[in-house]
Specification:
This protein is an alpha/beta fold and 381 residues long. Helices cover 35% and strands 19% of the residues. The chain has 13 helices and 15 strands. Helix 6 (169-179) links the parallel strand 8 and strand 9. Mean pLDDT is 85; it is low at 1-17 and 367-381.
């Protein structure tokens, strides 16, 4: 995406009102970029949004070149009042671009930060917005803490903001302690949390859900699993949940390359059994799920990285779920690549799709919510 300036400024009906600017990673080959897209789509439901893509370096959890994101696929199909722009890499040009875009018609300027990547541009962004008298907010992802990936490491960069939102209460408390009374207001919000996954899963536990007696899908899945190098297979296990009749399905499993590492579950599962299975898995895969798929719903509720193995070009599930990946069930290599990337994401617990709308309302309340807030403040006064 290149610089585009159409629809900015004034049009025949006068200046734009209540515009929100969102700046952050833009590549849909990364988890941060996909999350920013969901936040932008949620904000766009209640007004105009300008998105500035700032990609200064390789990002954490990159690598979706051959395993496209399910949420990004859905987002590409949506058409809304979003103007997309890419920020220059040069610092002076980028600062000028911020000045050109952040004007008096902007109600709030939002920056998205991911600990561990280059977030230095946020200082420029906040400085420009504050100089224009625009309210500012920084959204910080709370991620599993390893090395420099700590929200507190961003305190010096985000201290100019009016408000800071983080995923975890512990991170909010730590930042508030650093800022004390001289920094931004700090709040926590579940849309920004990617922590909370159980650490008890050892190795790579894959759980796959296949439709009843769908031998063709099972064969593709087993072929993908068979592509794991023999030097690695001791760390892998796969449970296949699939109702079946006759002996064709068990026989196919027994004749696969790694039968001792595959468990076939042919019984119906109760809700609590399904929940426990998801909780104890490193990654899930679901073949051609229906809209009311219990397996896919359980995956989303558990926040686990999930591969949607589809034979259709138009998957109908997974909108807003940033932990979903797409694979072509007709191509075992595609399934193998998607599962491999899902396992790279196993330390993360992904937010529920409903949280994007909740966060958007915190950043830009609807007219009725603003009215209710004003009434409440009047009563309290």
């Amino acid at each position: 995406m290149s610089w585009r300036s159409e629809h900015l400024g004034e049009d025949s009906s006068g200046p734009l009102k209540d515009r929100v600017i969102v700046a952050g990673p833009g590549s849909n080959l990364t988890i941060p970029g996909i999350i920013v897209a969901e936040i932008v789509q949620a904000l766009a439901k209640n007004g105009r949004v300008t998105r500035i893509e700032v990609d200064l370096s390789s990002h954490s959890m990159a690598g979706l070149h051959r395993a496209p994101s399910l949420a990004a696929w859905h987002s590409d199909q949506q058409i809304g009042g979003v103007v997309g722009l890419r920020a220059p890499e040069n610092t002076r040009r980028r600062t000028k671009a911020f000045r050109d875009l952040i004007g008096p018609d902007v109600s709030v300027a939002v920056a998205y930060a991911w600990p561990g990547i280059d977030n230095s541009w946020i200082q420029e962004f906040l400085y420009v917005a504050k100089s224009q008298g625009v309210s500012t907010a920084v959204l910080c992802a709370s991620v599993p803490k390893t090395g420099p990936r700590q929200v507190t490491s961003l305190a010096g960069i985000i201290g100019r903001a009016n408000r800071v939102y983080v995923g975890d209460i512990a991170d909010a408390t730590a930042l508030a302690t650093i800022f004390r009374h001289h920094g931004p207001v700090v709040e926590s919000h579940p849309a920004l949390s990617l922590t909370g996954k159980s650490d008890g899963v050892e190795g790579h536990e894959i759980t796959a859900f296949v439709p009843k007696d769908n031998v063709q899908s099972l064969a593709s899945l087993l072929a993908a699993f068979s592509a794991i190098p023999e030097a690695w297979i001791a760390d892998y296990r796969m449970s296949i949940v699939m109702r079946y009749t006759g002996g064709a399905v068990p026989e196919l499993v027994s004749r696969s390359h790694y039968p001792s590492y595959v468990t076939l579950i042919g019984d119906d599962m109760a809700a609590d059994e399904l929940t426990n299975l998801c909780a104890n898995s490193s990654a899930l895969s679901v073949a051609d799920p229906e809209l009311d798929s219990r397996a896919f719903s359980s995956a989303v509720e558990s926040g686990i990285a999930t591969v949607l193995m589809s034979t259709s070009a138009l998957p109908q599930v997974g909108m807003g779920y940033v932990g979903g990946l797409l694979a072509d069930l007709r191509q075992p290599a595609s399934v193998n690549v998607a599962l491999s990337h899902a396992l790279r994401l196993k330390e993360l617990r992904f937010p529920s799709p409903e949280t994007w709308g909740q966060l958007a309302r915190r950043l830009r309340p609807t007219s009725s919510e603003r009215l209710a807030s004003d009434v409440l403040e009047t009563v309290n006064d």
